[in-house]
Amino acid sequence: MAIDSIAALVQEAERTALPLWEVILREDLKEGQGTREDSLRQMKRLWDAMKASGDAYRPQERSHSGLAGGDSAKVSAAMENGALYGGRFFQEVIVEALKVSECNACMKRIVAAPTAGSCGVLPAVLLPLLRRGEDEEALLRALYVAAGFGEVIASRASISGAEGGCQAEVGAASAMAAAALADLRGGSPAMCANACALALSNLMGLVCDPVAGLVEVPCIHRNVVGAVNALSCADMALAGVECRIPADEVIDAMAQVGAAMDDSLRETGAGGLAATPTGKAIAERLASES
């Protein structure tokens, strides 16, 4: 995509009176990446893969390490028993975030959106809407919004935990999801930008500290945080709440924070939760078993 700022995307949508998703699609096509039909077909393929990743969940399955699996089923059972806070949709988002992330840990097929470690965020907020009757074409259009915002984040900062910490993975996914949700409810391009900025700023500074170097602990549960953060930020933006720092400046600040992080907090498994006594014990046990 030629446009490398959220502000430029918003300005182009306002100038042309085109929907934000259409602006993003046209910008992608300018890069010579196939035809419009090719792009729409590819997005549908990714959406179908997202749906399949949720369907592939099996409560009894565990990751090779034994650290992941079964949590989504626990939350689902508690939801059905009326034991949880929040409304039904909120609970379904948590269930879906865990489900897709656990499938990733169990080596099943997922969509890296934008990364494997943050694969549960976008499906978590979109799949429950599909089941509630949301128009599938509208969901596909929202995915273009998410993709466009994600591409700007990747170009201005990073979507790599090794480079920018978990803020660059789950933070970016949450920002993408927030923008998509705002768009789905008819939010203006500016509202989508505010949703993105709010979501990313909320998770700024989040470190990448995978226990034993695996994308399981605490990654899976952070996907839940990313999803519910996206919901709250989309709601704020739709209500007219503005992020006082523009989206592009938030993205640039995230890049600076990532660069300032100690290496131990950037996917090395040497700091944060990975460096706790329990985290080290898990790593030692898994190393002895391999």
Secondary structure: elements and pairs:
Elements: H1 6-16, H2 20-30, H3 36-55, H4 71-80, H5 88-105, H6 121-131, H7 136-156, H8 161-164, H9 170-184, H10 189-202, H11 219-238, H12 247-260, H13 277-289
Helix pairs in contact: 1-2, 2-7, 4-5, 5-6, 5-11, 6-9, 6-11, 7-9, 9-10, 9-11, 10-11, 10-12
Task: Write structural notes for this entry.
The model has no long low-confidence stretch (mean pLDDT 97). The chain starts with 5 loop residues before the first helix and ends with a helix. Helix 6 (121-131) runs parallel beside helix 9 (170-184), helix 9 (170-184) runs parallel beside helix 11 and helix 10 (189-202) runs antiparallel to helix 11 (219-238). It is globular, with a radius of gyration of 19 Å. With 290 residues, the chain is mainly alpha-helical. It contains 13 helices and no strands. The chain has one domain.
What is the gyration radius calculated from CA atoms? 19 Å
Percent strand equals under 5%
**Count of DSSP H/I helices:** 13
Number of domains: 1
Based on Cα principal axes, name the global outline.
Answer: globular
The share of residues in helices is 55-70%
**Structural class category:** mainly alpha
What is the mean pLDDT? 97
Q: Note poorly predicted spans.
A: none
